[in-house]
């Protein structure tokens, strides 16, 4: 590895601390720095990023310089297994890729099979915002897979406070950014998250989700489509299923699954009982 995004999480990728940074975001890397590393292969995103970023122009520039460019998303649940399978082939890690895919699908598939049988009446109404009153169509699939119904399914952009109040969601989900959450934080370091949650509950005080205390924050490092999540949306799916249907998924243990992933596949010496903040409020017993 001769170059990585400059903003990689040092707690999650400690092995890349001395590797050259080639740009703050994967959609707009510094081509000059990349070429100076004389790479044989460059991996860039195949899907669009925030604010309309793509890596199309960077791909053209690199290929014009004779560099092989491979493009993958890695954070889209519907394409992840196929993408990892291809990477296992490219990098001579087919067995390792297959082991992870099997483990990953043994977690995800039973949840999706269970929730696929739910009627609309069985699905709680869910409001998800990534900023106040900002909805994303990319939230729809993971909410549906976990057994919920996105009240703004198919909508991308700003919604009104009046309409959220009218739709009266039963559960509210808010992804929060790295820094407010992450592997480097003490589990008791939740003051900022408490503030975000209280602000949501204050401005939406009359909806069912607030009245019942069903307002949940989750790390952007676990949330589908966000650039730092990678394959980890499967952990978010576990948390959502547990929040949406605690009786159906009473045996599901999201933190234990996250822990196994870190230890077994990421090779990290991180004990999630002692280090890291990823959801708020924490699940009882986790």
UniProtKB/TrEMBL annotation:
One Pfam family it belongs to: Peripla_BP_2
PANTHER family: MOLYBDATE-BINDING PROTEIN MOLA, VITAMIN B12-BINDING PROTEIN
Ranges for domain Fe/B12 periplasmic-binding: 1-248
Superkingdom of this protein's organism: Archaea
Organism this protein belongs to: uncultured Methanosarcinales archaeon
InterPro entries: ABC_Transporter_SBP, ABC_transptr_periplasmic_BD
Protein name: Fe/B12 periplasmic-binding domain-containing protein
């Amino acid at each position: 590895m001769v170059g990585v995004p400059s903003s990689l999480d040092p707690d999650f990728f400690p092995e890349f601390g001395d590797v050259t940074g080639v740009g703050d975001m994967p959609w707009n890397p510094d081509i000059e720095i990349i070429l100076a590393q004389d790479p044989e292969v460059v991996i860039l995103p195949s899907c669009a990023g925030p604010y309309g970023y793509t890596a199309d122009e960077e791909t053209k520039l690199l290929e014009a310089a004779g560099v092989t460019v491979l493009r993958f998303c890695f954070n889209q649940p519907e394409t992840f297994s196929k993408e990892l399978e291809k990477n296992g082939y490219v990098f001579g890690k087919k067995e390792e890729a297959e082991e992870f895919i099997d483990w990953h699908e043994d977690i995800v598939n039973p949840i999706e099979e269970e929730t696929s049988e739910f009627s609309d009446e069985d699905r709680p109404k869910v409001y998800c915002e990534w900023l106040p009153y900002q909805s994303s169509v990319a939230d729809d699939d993971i909410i549906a897979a976990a057994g919920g119904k996105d009240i703004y399914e198919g909508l991308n952009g700003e919604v009104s406070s009046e309409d959220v109040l009218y739709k009266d969601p039963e559960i509210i989900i808010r992804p929060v950014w790295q820094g407010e959450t992450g592997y480097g934080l003490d589990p008791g370091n939740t003051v900022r998250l408490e503030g975000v949650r209280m602000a949501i509950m204050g401005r939406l005080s009359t909806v069912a989700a607030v009245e019942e205390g069903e307002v949940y924050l989750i790390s952007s490092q676990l949330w589908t489509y966000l650039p730092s999540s990678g394959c980890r949306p499967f952990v978010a799916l576990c948390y959502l299923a547990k929040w949406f249907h605690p009786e159906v998924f009473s045996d599901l243990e999201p933190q234990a699954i996250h822990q196994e992933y870190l230890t077994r596949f990421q090779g990290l010496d991180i004990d999630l009982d002692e280090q890291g903040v990823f959801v708020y409020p924490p699940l009882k017993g986790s």
